[in-house]
Write a structure and sequence with these properties.
Elements (H helix, E strand, L loop, with lengths): L1 H7 L6 H33 L9 H45 L14 H58 L7 H31 L7 E4 H18 L3 E8 L3 E4 L1 H18 L3 E9 L2 E8 L6 H6 L19 H11 L3 E6 L5 E8 L5
Parallel strand pairs: 2-4
Antiparallel strand pairs: 1-3, 4-5, 5-7, 6-7
Helix pairs in contact: 2-3, 3-4, 4-5, 6-7, 7-9
Amino acid sequence: MAKIISYLRLKNMTMLQSFVALNCVYLVAVLTAIVFEFDWADRIRRRFADHPSGNDWVITAQIIAMLLTIGIGLVLIASLFYKLKLKKPLEILMSASEKISSNDLGFHVSYDSKDEMSELCRAFEKMRSQLESNFKALWRSVEERNQLNAIFAHDLRTPLSIMKGYSEFITTYLPQKRISEEKLLDTIKTMETHILRMERYVESMNSIQKLDDMPINKQEIEFDTLIALLDNSASRIADQSGKTSDSCRSADSTLLFVDMDLVMQVFENMVANGARYASNQVNVDYLVYNGIFSITVIDDGSGFSDVDLRKSVLPFYRGVEPEANEHQGLGLYICKVLCEKHQGGLQVANSSSGGGKVTASFICHVDK
């Protein structure tokens, strides 16, 4: 039987093909057994032909033997079908289900066959992979949100401490009339400055919270049309900072499938950041290759410090330059979040010439 099963190559058959093949084997085996039973019954009948009690009981025994043969054959063939086609994949799927229910996604579902159970295992593996990807994305989102809250709380602590100190100062010395009107107004004005600072922080936090809910609306656009829009925006931003801009391009596709508004928002943040630190010029490189659209903005400034390279994409990081403190420090962080929503990423480095170099990438092929 094992040689017959091996010869049939059931692993390469679908469930229906395997069922038909096993039933053919079953019919051949049962019919062969029945033929032998007929021969056996005929010999028994001739042997007891002259027996006083007769040989009528042989027919009954033959019928019982045939029914037992058919029944045992059905049980054996069903057991064989289960063992060969169902047992292993069901065990794999049950084990995978138990692991998923225990929040363990660090495994793979694999079943080497060409039948429907193999397709089911592949579909289960695809589902597991997607669950793992979603779980990791959710975990990263939670970690980033916790990090963002920690940074926000840290940055708010300073103005709150200052305002608390001024409040104690006023409540202590004002009743004693030991504060001049000029000093009081100056203190109130300083407190107002810090109140405005906290308001800006709160608005910034609200804008960051909205990034997670921002939908991605991809549409088809010609490469040259998009580059013309980006170049025009880069020239305008650079002019406002008293700098110049230049660009170069390379593409293996004339059509892109991107969210144009999202790309524009990322691009303008990158160019504004580059123009802020550039000495004279901002260069932009556009590249479309293998379904990925990347934009690299390079300035001719002093570049990123080691600390900047580690922290530049963190929210509310404003660098060590005095002029940087005028900004909330959200530009590159927003770029990073938006790029990731577009299935891309953001990289910060220094160019070979020493200036800052920021590269944003976006998946630009048609989703299938």
